[in-house]
């Protein structure tokens, strides 16, 4: 007579549990990868966004001269577009496109501005508009405002002064300025700019970040690094748990 074993039959579940673990690990890795890709897309190499064209066709071909009233210090401004972001504050690192021109007082010629940018005041119909400086598409300028890194006319034209009825610019804003020589280079000759020359600018603010503290871009990169670090150990732990019985 065959002896009957008193052992209970235990169903084999290792294959199903192993398959479930693999699916879990695969899903976890996929979710982490998606999160890292999203964070990477939020931290564009040029300060977190796609750069627009320097100036819209409507503003670059504008010839209107309806500037705001002249401030007591001689500065004039006109907002082509008021930004929708926060206002610019002293100490901000500002990213912007700009073009600088002037009207020669003595009629001498220079590198003329052929892009049709704003010319608010003309001493004569034949005087050439000289473009002495401008940014290139995709290559904006960056500076810290309120720290003396730019001429006083820029500081005032960007930060504003409510006592002079000049509002501050906001991120995304596009403003035209007429800067008197006293707020530019005074009686100095700088490059192609003659002494005692009033200057005209068009400035488009792309972005601004406080220079103190941690920027949003740095915070996002830190979060992405933390997620990657934790994900590595989470997957490693799941792998060890899955194969623990096989090893020991």
From TrEMBL:
Residue span, PPIase FKBP-type domain: 91-209
Keywords: Isomerase, Membrane, Rotamase, Transmembrane, Transmembrane helix
Catalyses which reaction(s): [protein]-peptidylproline (omega=180) = [protein]-peptidylproline (omega=0)
EC number: 5.2.1.8
GO molecular function: peptidyl-prolyl cis-trans isomerase activity
Enzyme class, spelled out: isomerase
Segments for region (Disordered): 1-22
Membrane-crossing segments per the record: 223-241
Superkingdom per UniProt: Eukaryota
Name used for this protein in its record: peptidylprolyl isomerase
